[in-house]
Amino acid sequence: MSRKPLRIFFRVLLLLAVPLVIAGCHLWQVIGDLPEAPEVAAYEKLPYYRDGRFQNPEPLPYYPDRATGGGPSGWIRFLLPNPHKPEFALPQVALDANSFAAPSEALAAYWLGHASLIIELEGKRFLVDPVFGNAAPLPGIVRRFVDAPLKRADLPPLDYVLITHDHYDHLEYATIKALSDREIRFIVPYGVAAHLRKWGVPAERVREIGWDETLQEDGLTIAAERTLHFSGRTFGRRDTTLWTAYVLKGERFRVFVSGDTGYGGHFKAIGAAHGPFDLAFIEIDGWNSGWPKTHMFPEEVIQACHDIGARTMVPVHWGVFDLARHPWDESIRRVHDLALQDGKFKLLTPRMGERVTPESATETWFLVR
Description:
Blueprint lengths: L2 H29 L5 H7 L5 E2 L2 E2 L52 E7 L2 E6 L2 E5 L31 E3 L10 H7 L5 E5 L3 H6 L7 E4 L3 E5 L2 E6 L19 E5 L4 E4 L8 H9 L4 E5 L14 H11 L3 E5 L13 H13 L3 E2 L7 E2 L13
Parallel strand pairs: 5-6, 6-7, 7-8, 12-13, 13-14, 14-15
Antiparallel strand pairs: 1-2, 3-4, 3-16, 4-5, 9-10, 10-11, 11-12
Helix pairs in contact: 5-6, 6-7
């Protein structure tokens, strides 16, 4: 072979290798990091940590042969056209940097889609599980049905960022990176601080918390409580970080954020310890017979509201991603109908970006075709 074809070959190889190396470095950054040895040593003293992994309060079964919804299973389905997406543009209230006044001295909230929230409690503003892009480490995978109603750059002044667990639909590298130089306090479950440190958040602004633990901040109580779920951002790292629900208590109001969870006895325990709640943000989507305890079925959502003593509930974890192979509106329609039949708590179903309080009235926009 002459030298010229060899030079062409190596040039083509270099052209292919450079973007692959860049993509690989980006992927390694997005995945995050593992807790350091002293942190792991501290986790080993916890009753819910064993053999290098955090443990669920109840078994978490997985039955791939029982999975419903049809089509391919696993990650391949996130690369194919989505048969469950909306056939129309979902209504939103567009927000920008000028949409926010000072945080409410009472209680108000904005649902930004899926599990992302802004909660204003007695003068303090919380950003919960902020995800503005896709729910995957690479673009084009686990695509959104609809853009977020607020751009990342237009987020208002914040006091706290709360992360319930490290799955990609709850913890987004680009958002944490964008917030890393702000004077914000980050409250995360055990193990998640390692991700934030890698992404540039100063260690002194991150507080880790575990189940049954509380923080006293700015006259508020922030408590972490059990959920029935799992964690992990890549192969081999499952359950090396914790997953939590949050209880936020002020002098006048109490808020519950369920995080991702299946139904279990932890709801009654949370209600007994902290309830009743003026406003509860409960996950309603992601259920499937193949993973019956990983997320809640609609009937279980209603029971969970009873267990914790929810006076008003806002459904979350729906409307943006197809995570369980059922139509985008099946969960909200069923939860809406069951809540009407039940009549024991108030259901708020805001549009993405709509400001609500416990006294608000909202439209059933998802019932309109």
